[in-house]
Amino acid sequence: MSFALITQASRADDKKAIRAAVADALSDSDVTRLIVEPRVAERFAPTLAEEADTFLDQVVAALMTSERLDVEVAYVSAEVTAATRRYRLPHGPAARELAENGTASPVPLIRDDAATVVLGSARHLGAEGAKLHGESYVDSERLFDGEVRSILIEPTLEAPGLRAQVERFLLPGKWFAGRAVQTGGTNIVVEREGVVNERVLKRSTFYRHVTDLLLVRP
Questions:
Q1: So what's the pLDDT on residue 40?
Q2: Hey, what domains does the chain have and what are their CATH numbers?
Q3: Overall pTM surpassing 0.70 (yes/no)
Q4: CA dist., res. 168 & res. 47, Å (int)
C-alpha cells in the first residue's frame, strides 16, 4: 500500500486548490490511500472542527467527481469533530497511527444535489433566521408539512445511509432513516458542517451516492 498526504494550505472550501492537490497526489499510480490532515499554514487562522470537516468533505468530493472512490481515505483530525464522532474515529496521534496502519471499509457516502459531500452534518433552514416553510420527506416518509425551526441531516455508518429529524427548541423530533431527504419550500437555505450558504432555494436534496466511501476506521 502506498499513501499520499493531503494537507490544508488554503481555505477549507477552496475547491479548485483541493481538487488540484488530489489530482496531483493521484498522478502517482501507486497511491491507494489519501491521508487527509486539515493542517493550516501559518498565515491562516487555526482550524476549527467545522473547517476540518469541510476540508475532508472537499477532498472526498474531489474523489467522487473524478470517479476515484476506489482510493481509500484516512482522516487525521487534531480534535474531535462531527465527522470523527459520526464514524467513531480517533483524533490526534491515534488518528495518525490508524491512518497509516488501519484497514479501510466501505461506508455510505452522502452528497447533495450540488455534488457537495457531507461527512459531519447538514441542515435545511429558513432564510434570514425565519422558520423553514415547506415540507420534507425521508424517502417516502414525511418529516413535516408547514413551518419548523430546521431539519438536521446526518450520515450513518450503515445502510440505508442517512437520517434526519425536525429540530425543536425543547424535545428533538424522531429520527427517520433513509437513502435520501428532500425538502421543498419557499425559503430554504442549506448549512453544511456549520457553514450556511445564504443562497435561497426552493428545493434541496441529500442522498446516498451510488458508490460507497472506503474509509479507514478502527
A1: 52
A2: 3-108 (3.50.80), 117-208 (2.60.200.30)
A3: yes
A4: 29
